[in-house]
Amino acid sequence: MRDPEEELSELESAGLRRRLRRIESPQGRSVALTGTRECLNFSSNDYLGLANSEELKSLYQIHIGKLGAGSGASRLVCGTMAAHLELEEKLADLKNSPAALTFSSGFAAATGIIQALCGKDDFVILDKLCHASLIDGARLSGAAMRVYPHNDLERLASHLRWAETKRGRNSRVLVITESVFSMDGDLAPLAGICDLKDTHDSLLLVDEAHAFGVLGPQGRGLAASLGLEKRVDLQMGTFSKAAGLSGGYLCASRPLVDLMTNRARSFIYSTAPSPALAATIRDGLDLVCGTRGEELRTILFANRERFLSGTSSAIVPMILGDNHAALSASATLQDMGFLVPAIRYPTVPRGSARLRFTLSAAHYPDDIEALKKALAEVIPDRYDSNFAS
Predict the structure, then answer these.
(1) Annotation marks residue 182 as catalytic
(2) What is the pLDDT, as a whole number, of residue 388?
(3) pTM for this one?
(4) Which of 43, 104, 182, 202 is catalytic?
(5) Of the residues 210, 330, 352, 363, which is catalytic?
């Protein structure tokens, strides 16, 4: 039998062992870490700076008082509260979708949706850099799975042609991509993917987790930004990033949403999220997608441009390659007062360990200038001159 201590030792020597980092303060522009000074936070996905905002805290407190803390059961037993349905109706309307369904997390949404939609006679084709939850969902489905090189439309087309030769009369072919890729921050060639999936009679699932609240009109995501909402069969996302809360969602046709209600195991067999949370998300959508959201996105985009001119999202990677080099740079930056995570395999491919910077509307211009100065000092040989512009 394998000894867990030996496995941990192997992870340690490879620079791959993870440890939990205790944060003593709420999420925000800066955070207090145990045993160290407060650090400017360049690691959070709280893109609009709402996680600890007075607006969301006030809403949450009001709704807990009205609706209680817990839902008591799964959605199909007695856990579907009015707040859940009102959130789903509002989200579907916002995303120009016939229907919506919410999940306890983005991970639960991904694994539940794919497993409910596909089986052993079906085909799943996904981008190599898709999130682990999407990969796990594809594996759990039992469908034949093919992976295409990142954003490679030619290879995607080849895989779709292969699936056409194998599929039966009732087989589904599902193409999966993120819109903004979580570790690289680049965008999917969504128009080309839509063209290919239409040509080959396939369905398309787009994970908008890192685009919702950030890109497009009202922060509706990349599909909305490109005018492709109606061509994306399944729009998936999360409330745990720009929206400042937690939970996952699916926007799709009414039959597809009803199919999820009947087959998505992560939905059926999970206690429903707190009704107070659902109501806070519902009301928080007005904040994210309204005038305040536009103001915050303007600040976020200015911060993004200040940090690295021309970048397409709030995520900026600096690839160092070696695990220990990434860990060392991260530790040095933390000692200097900057929280920047070292991202390593299996989150990213082997040999592509990196620092992953995330920008927020909560950051001040001086915060970003201080980080750029620190980077020039800590990693002078890898520091991209674009950061200094």
Answers:
(1) yes
(2) 42
(3) 0.93
(4) 182
(5) 210
Say yes or no: 220 and 330 in one domain. no
150 classed as catalytic: no
At 247, is the secondary structure helix, strand, or coil? coil
Question: Would you tell me how many other CB atoms lie within 10 Å of the CB of residue 273?
Answer: 27
Residue-wise pLDDT for 274-288, tens only, equals 999 999 999 999 999
Q: Are residues 244 and 100 in the same domain?
A: yes
Length of the chain: 389
Rounded to the nearest 10 degrees, the angle between the axes of helix 275-289 and helix 54-67 is 150
Count of H-run helices and E-run strands, the chain? 14, 13
129 and 194 together in one domain: yes
Is pLDDT above 80 for 383? no
Q: Is 372 a catalytic residue?
A: no
| CATH code of the domain in which 319 resides | 3.90.1150.10
- Whether the pLDDT of residue 14 is over 90: the answer is no
For residue 248, what are the β-bridge partners? Answer: 103, 238
Per the residue annotation, which of 241, 313, 330, 352 is the catalytic one?
Answer: 241
State the residue for tokens 């959605």. Answer: 75
